[in-house]
Specification:
Strand order of the largest sheet: 1-2-3-5-4
Number of helices: 4
CATH class: Alpha Beta
Shape: globular
Distance between the termini: 47 Å
Strand content: 25-35%
CATH superfamily: Vaccinia Virus protein VP39
Number of domains: 1
């Protein structure tokens, strides 16, 4: 069965997350409720498999699936940051409002600075998942990346 791609001018989830060909993307915190279609779209866009969660490779993007009962968000962000290239981003994927495991956006905003990150944007990643983009502040990047 052949399905049509996105309509001309329509942005895909990979577009909204700024995923481009060749990026190294690592997925952390995946569970049964994670959006498989989103992950497949990202892998298709990069043209490579996602970096395994247990890898120590430096990556351009970390997809951090996080739910209300997943523990301490600051700890999860600090762990994710250790894998991140200076100019990379962490996308915190949380269940949308009204869904099990929903995380308040203010919780992400509060946790980011403690982990040495700033929130730069937020998007709807899929029907059930919201995404907040966190990055290392420019002043904290290696001199070659400022």
């Amino acid at each position: 069965m052949v399905t049509a791609g996105p309509a001309e001018g329509e942005r895909t989830a990979a577009d909204r997350l700024g995923i481009t060909a060749g990026m190294a993307v690592q997925e952390v915190g995946r569970d049964d409720d994670s959006d498989t279609a989103l992950v497949e779209a990202i892998a298709a866009r990069t043209g490579t498999d996602l970096v395994p969660e247990d890898s120590d490779d430096v990556v351009d993007v970390v997809l951090l699936w996080f739910r209300e009962d997943d523990g301490d968000l600051v700890d999860a962000l600090m762990d994710a940051r250790t894998r991140l290239a200076d100019t990379g981003a962490i996308w915190v994927l949380t269940p949308k409002s009204g869904r099990d495991g929903h995380v308040e956006p203010s919780d992400i905003l509060d946790a980011a600075p403690t982990a040495g990150l700033v929130q730069t944007s937020s998007v709807s990643a899929s029907k059930d998942w919201a995404a907040a983009k966190l990055a290392v502040p420019k002043g904290q990047r290696s001199p070659r990346h400022r």
